[in-house]
Write a structure and sequence with these properties.
- Helix content is 33%, strand content 15%.
- It is of the alpha/beta class and 253 residues long.
- It has a seven-stranded parallel β-sheet, covered by helices on one side.
- Strand 3, helix 4 and strand 4 form a beta-alpha-beta unit.
- Helix 3 runs parallel beside helix 4.
- The termini are far apart.
Length: 253
């Protein structure tokens, strides 16, 4: 009996060490840096697309960038940027990486004097960038500057550290003037399967078009958003006055 108790004690000790090591690894501050966006000083409207971990060549994001560039080709004050954060897009480190890199981007955007609208769109682990961008921007500009910031989370993952799987549901979108989460509830990716407290939510799990979608469900929200892009691309078209935070719309189209 004592032998089995000692073995059990070792197993428990190893589990505790593993858990603590994972938590430290996932929260340890990062020194990663990205090149500046280098936007023109007269940029009025920025649409920033942020891929998930391992998604630097995600075809639907590339298509989204192309279609937005075509839509705003005649307006030199509109900038469309597909942010590539590889090789730093480590899924387990994305919580701290998103905070560090997003904060740097927000401070850079605060230097643009003509900026009136910011549209942030992120898939999966790219979700960690959005509120840090917004918070850093708000902290740098004059409080009277009311740049409208809209966020769209596409199956945005929100795990903080190793074990707080609900962090994103409680926090993503809190800085935005308008935030929306488009998500599925039944695929393998963790930390994105429930509505956000600070966003208007669209559950696309049972969407008709998903039945013929030939990729994992974690990528379907990107396709859903892309199929509605014509109505989504202009700024200040959505408001929490009629699309309240925390509410859920179940999509059937």
């Amino acid at each position: 009996m004592n032998r089995w108790l000692r073995r059990l004690g070792w197993v428990i000790a190893l589990m505790v060490v593993f858990s603590a090591t994972l938590e430290v690894y996932m929260r340890w501050p990062s020194t990663a840096e990205l090149s500046p966006l280098g936007l023109d000083e007269d940029t009025r409207y920025l649409l920033l697309l942020v891929h998930g971990s391992g998604g630097s060549k995600e075809p639907t994001f590339i298509e989204m960038e192309q279609r937005l560039n075509e839509a705003f080709a005649d307006d030199p004050q509109v900038a469309v940027v597909r942010l590539v954060w590889a090789p730093h897009d480590n899924r387990r480190r994305s919580y701290v990486l998103g905070h560090r890199l997003g904060t740097a981007i927000g401070r850079e955007l605060a230097m643009l004097p003509e900026l009136t609208d910011i549209r942030l769109v992120a898939h999966s682990a790219g979700a960690y960038f959005l509120d840090p961008i917004c918070v850093a921007y708000r902290n740098q500009v004059d409080p009277d500057v009311r740049t409208f910031i809209e966020m769209t989370f596409l199956d945005g993952i929100g795990i903080a550290g190793g074990w707080d799987y609900d962090w994103g549901y409680r926090n993503h979108g809190h800085c935005a003037d308008f935030a929306r989460s488009i998500y599925t509830t039944n695929d393998w990716a963790p930390g994105h399967n429930e509505p956000y407290d600070y966003a208007h939510n669209i559950d696309v799990t049972e969407s008709l078009a998903r039945r013929t979608f030939d990729r994992p469900g974690h990528y379907y929200p990107i396709r859903y958003f892309l199929s509605h892009l014509v109505s989504e691309q202009q700024p200040r078209q959505r408001s929490h006055m009629n699309l309240p935070r925390g509410a859920v719309h179940v999509a059937e189209d």
